[in-house]
Design a protein that fits this description.
alpha+beta, 18-stranded antiparallel β-barrel, two-stranded parallel sheet, 9 helices
Length: 502
């Protein structure tokens, strides 16, 4: 029934758009960016209807694979802009089977005030007061100059529940409630301020094919970490601990691991950003006070649990084994941090160069608190340039460098950053070329995690004819299976999509 409502809603919207065909129509985020003058029409309506077939290659080798339904293939979007002399209202909606079901099953929204249903792409009011623009509502912002999220793009979490769409950066961003003020201080200068009243982290699938291995391995990591700690504390009793431990580990699955409540005002975030142009150089600087989008996971009370386990089971009695898991305190924490960053853009020798750098100061300035991430530096540098034979290249490298790395512990349940590299480097490259009067575009995107030795390759052919776009693409995951990308090697896919924009 929910899916039928989706189709009816889109049909009514398309008919409504046809009825007001004399009006201007807009589509996408270009219509929502800074407006320098009053629009010529008070209302704009835009959107997209898409049919998409996307089978997973490895599913053909499996028995009992679920068939792809029509509703899984069908999607759309609608956006509305209502403009007055000094005010503008904008709302955009994503319409597909998952987003409609998410809205109708609103338990998550009622229990978590930070949860933005993905059907709500954006919804905000914008007021113009001389050189000052004020926006309030569910908003997506892009700070920094990088083409893909760099260290300065810190206002919105990302939706990673389906990595087929990871190259659509704005589509993956999750709108957040915020107050955003922009003051145009000159022809090429502006000062921005943002206030976000709560916090939400990146969104990952908790189960299914796109669930990261961290979810599946959380309890096994806890088991191994506690065993290693027990042997470390009691090397003379190592054999005894190993013998009794399997019975204790069987009760770990009943431990509740909950995410913290980040919907209260005490989790607010805020930032200032200033950008200007000096000659041929665009520069900017910003300060942001917020929380890291990725949480840290540690367990407290481990030493007390081990001491109680040994004392309660001496002498060992397999028929009356005693384990008190209530002494363990699993905690997932989103770390506070201060960020100070700068960015730069310039055309040099035909290269459009962009760079960002920032230092992130967490609450663990000594580097010895395992439940808090160490301070770190983040930087990115990239360029785009037309090469030869009409080929365009766009390359960006992002890296984080952990500080005080010598203070990191070796047990992942006591130090959230144990068993991780001090650096994390990701290279994103795209080559593209257009044919047939720019109607046909071929492109290939490669995302390469250097330390993990894994990658994600996305080749595509895109045909555009008026408002209709047809795309044939694929997604190939390769490399080390323990890596962030390589773990999805069975999710390689082929995609055929047809989209109509209005």
């Amino acid at each position: 029934m929910k899916k039928e409502k989706l189709l009816i809603f889109l049909l009514i919207a398309v008919c409504g758009c046809s009825f007001v065909g004399a009006q201007d129509f807009g589509f996408g985020f270009d219509d929502t960016e800074t407006v320098s003058s009053k629009p010529s029409v008070p209302v704009k309506i835009g959107g997209e209807i898409a049919v998409e077939l996307s089978p997973y290659v490895h599913d053909f080798k499996k028995e009992g694979t679920q068939a792809i339904s029509f509703w899984d293939m069908f999607s759309g979007s609608l956006d509305f802009t209502l403009s007055g002399s000094n005010i503008e209202a904008f709302a955009a909606f994503n319409l597909n089977a998952d987003s409609i079901s998410e809205l109708w099953n609103a338990d998550e929204m009622l229990s978590d005030p930070t949860y933005t249903p993905l059907i709500m792409d954006e919804a905000f009011l914008r007021a113009y007061i001389g050189p000052v623009n004020i926006e309030a509502g569910l908003r997506k912002l892009s700070w920094g100059k990088a083409d893909i999220p760099g260290p300065l793009d810190v206002t919105n979490p990302m939706d990673y529940t389906d990595l087929r769409y990871i190259s659509d950066i704005m589509g993956c961003k999750i709108a957040q409630p915020m107050l955003h003020v922009t003051w145009n201080t000159g022809d090429f200068s502006k000062l921005e301020g943002v206030f976000i009243p709560n916090f939400a982290g990146h969104r990952f699938a908790e189960d299914g094919r796109w669930a990261p291995s961290q979810y599946a391995n959380m309890y096994s990591t806890a088991e191994k970490g506690i065993l290693d700690r027990a042997i470390e504390l009691n090397p003379a009793l190592a054999m005894l601990v190993q013998a009794m431990y399997p019975q204790a580990a069987g009760s770990f699955s009943g431990i509740s691991i909950e995410y913290p409540d980040t919907g209260k005002l005490e989790n607010f975030q805020a930032g200032l950003r200033y950008t200007t142009t000096i000659g041929s150089i665009d520069i900017g600087g910003q300060y942001f006070y917020g929380k890291l989008f990725r949480p840290s996971f540690t367990i407290g009370g481990v030493d007390e649990f081990i001491a109680d386990l040994i004392s309660s089971n001496m002498p060992p009695d397999p028929g009356n084994f005693i384990v008190n898991t209530s002494l363990l305190e699993p905690q997932i924490k989103y770390n506070r941090y201060h960020q100070i960053g700068i960015d730069y853009a310039q055309v040099l020798f035909g290269f459009n160069v962009r760079a960002e750098a920032a230092i992130h100061l967490t609450e663990d300035l000594a580097g010895d608190d395992g439940s808090v991430q160490n301070p770190f530096i983040g930087w990115s540098i990239g360029f785009d340039r037309h090469l030869f034979m009409g080929i365009n290249a766009n390359v960006q490298c992002n890296e984080t460098i952990r500080l005080l790395n010598n203070k990191i512990g070796s047990n992942p349940i006591l130090d959230a950053e144990a068993d991780t590299d001090a650096t994390a480097t990701r290279l994103t490259m795209q080559l593209s070329k257009k044919f047939l009067r720019d109607n046909l575009e071929s492109k290939a995107t490669v995302i390469w995690d250097i330390e993990n030795s894994d990658c994600y390759i996305i080749p595509a052919l895109v045909w555009t004819a008026g408002n209709m776009t047809s795309e044939l693409s694929a997604g190939i995951f390769a490399g080390k299976e323990s890596g962030e990308l390589g773990q999805y090697w069975e999710n390689s896919f082929i995609m055929l999509a047809v989209k109509y924009q209005f």
